[in-house]
Specification:
The protein is of the alpha/beta class and 490 residues long. The chain contains 17 helices and 22 strands. The structure holds nicotinamide-adenine-dinucleotide.
Length: 490
């Protein structure tokens, strides 16, 4: 596996300056496909994080950023242009640090977010109703009052990002938070820091963002991110990652009653109705292998009618045995490695648990022998899965699909909803029936017959323990705003 030449930024971006960590420390960025170090990045400390928080607080409180819409729009347009100029650099760096297949960078990993994630909220700056005129009302002494509702920035936003779709998640958070007039501290995952430091460099060198409005703090230590959740100077945490960390963020943030937006895990079901075209419908099972299963909204449980179960299992087994996977640099693979040794071992641990609890391994289940280096896991299909098994209940975040039989539509709905999660789902069948079943699923993003329920103008997020709030869309934009009711005598 070859590594293309890249020009990464190892410095953080704090208060308008590209900076080393205060104590000069760095940590290694590792390529999950080769297990080799590809470079270093600043290892920020709690003290570095506090400096970034102070800078963001100052920029919010002491500059006109939150009210100067023209400046915000210009800065976001410059960010867009700057990132576009770095598109190929970003692509190569991301493949190296995230192990994401090259193919996926022409879609959700790089090109889709570069298309709309900044432009959409930048456009909303002009179109959003920042002031709502209410009918006149009566004042305290019965006099007529003019009444308005103003929408205003919340303040300082801590944006905490995972490693699976870092560019997409980062731009989804940062551009909306900035467009609405907040100041931001971005904290990327330690596994994928370069895309964030590159964004810091773009902002530093190509834009008019005032110092402190946007900051990037990288660290090998997750608890540096926790500084954001406990600081009274931070007003909102926008987090994407595991449900466990999401709960901890909520708990830590409660002391200062922080606003929290949490986009967490999922265990979404794909329901294939008995009137579906099975040859096409079963292909969607391969989605569980896309980016080695490291996406929160994937259909990782597939529900098929019991009388079609054996035939479906046979077709899926053959599909899983032919998944193109391996070197993420290769243009035809849909699946590279998982992000780290820890994650690989976690996925293999779930596979062992599946076997121990009585599920049957149809194919996969181990480390591929033809790929001795890199944190790869074979595309894995479990059959004879009961929805009560751990592999059907917990988010594995690896290339593992659970095939579960059902008796009728009611049973399919019951199984799909029998989950602590409620992020997404797919229903495949005749349109009317699929629509009716979809209405009964408690999930935030539902695809019917392959429809794409996501996009920069569509709210992304889940029911139940899949999170609180929505990323993207108008619903996401408004999350970064406070509401002020105002009245004065006419
Ligand atoms: P994580 O939730 O631990 O980390 C995500 C981000 O949160 C990282 O930037 C991390 O540094 C930061 N973080 C961790 N602890 C923190 C704390 N106490 N305070 C503030 N920030 C903190 O996720 P992970 O370890 O990267 O992955 C573990 C599991 O999370 C995965 O196996 C998967 O199930 C899930 N996951 C879900 C998503 C998603 O999109 N829903 C994304 C990535 C991972």
């Amino acid at each position: 596996m070859s590594n293309p030449t890249v020009h990464p930024e190892h410095r953080m971006y704090i208060d308008g300056q590209l900076v080393e960590a205060e104590d000069g420390k760095t940590f290694a960025n590792i390529n999950p496909a080769t297990e080799e170090k590809i470079g270093e990045v600043a290892d920020g400390s709690n003290s570095d994080m506090r400096r970034a928080i102070d800078a963001a607080r100052h920029a919010f409180d002491e500059t006109d950023w939150s009210t100067n819409r023209e400046l915000r729009k210009r800065c976001l347009e410059q960010m867009q242009e700057g990132l576009e100029a770095e598109r190929e650099e970003l692509r190569e760096q991301l493949i190296l640090e995230a192990g994401c297949p090259r193919m996926s960078t022409y879609g959700p990993q790089v090109d889709w977010p570069l298309e709309g994630h900044i432009r959409y909220p930048a456009k909303l700056i002009d179109e959003f109703p920042w002031e709502i005129e209410m009918p006149d009302g009566l004042g305290n002494q019965g006099e007529p009052n003019r009444r308005r509702i103003w929408k205003e920035a919340i303040g300082v936003v801590g944006a905490i990002v995972p490693w699976n779709y870092p560019v997409e998640v980062t731009l989804g958070k940062v551009a909306q938070a900035l467009a609405t007039g907040n100041t931001v501290i971005l904290k990327p995952a330690p596994d994928t820091p370069w895309n964030a430091t590159l964004l810091g460099r773009v902002v530093a060198e190509r834009t008019d963002f005032p110092p402190g409005v946007f900051n990037v703090v990288t660290s090998a230590d997750h608890l540096v991110g926790e500084e954001l959740t406990i600081s009274p100077k931070v007003d909102l945490i926008s987090f994407t990652g595991s449900t466990v960390t999401g709960k901890r963020i909520m708990e830590k943030g409660a002391a200062t009653l922080k606003r929290v937006f949490l986009e967490l895990g999922g265990k979404s079901a794909t329901i294939i109705l008995d009137d579906a075209d099975f040859d096409t419908a079963l292909l969607s099972g391969l989605g569980a292998c896309y980016h080695a299963g490291q996406a929160c909204a994937l259909g990782t449980r597939m529900l098929v009618p019991s009388d079609r179960y054996e035939a479906s299992a046979a077709t899926l087994t053959s599909l899983f045995e032919n998944v193109p996977y391996g070197d993420p640099q290769s243009p035809e693979v849909i699946m590279g490695p998982v992000v780290s040794e820890k994650q690989r071992d976690r996925v293999l641990g779930y596979i062992e648990k599946g076997k121990a609890e009585g599920a049957e391994l149809a194919t996969g289940g181990g480390r591929p022998t033809h790929l001795p280096k890199g944190w790869f896991v074979e595309p894995t299909l479990f059959v004879n899965v009961d929805n009560s098994m751990t592999i059907a209940r917990e988010e594995i975040f690896g290339p593992v699909l659970c095939l579960i039989p059902y008796e009728n539509d009611d049973d399919a709905v019951r199984i799909a909803n029998d989950s602590q999660y409620g992020l997404a789902g797919n229903v495949i069948g005749s349109p009317d029936r699929a629509l009716a079943v979809t209405r009964r699923i408690r999930g935030g993003m539902m695809s019917i017959n392959g429809g794409a329920a996501h996009g920069v103008d569509m709210p992304f997020g889940g029911y139940k323990q899949s999170g609180i709030g929505r990323q993207n869309g108008l619903q996401g934009f408004e999350q970064y705003l406070e509401t002020k009711a105002v009245a004065w005598p006419a």
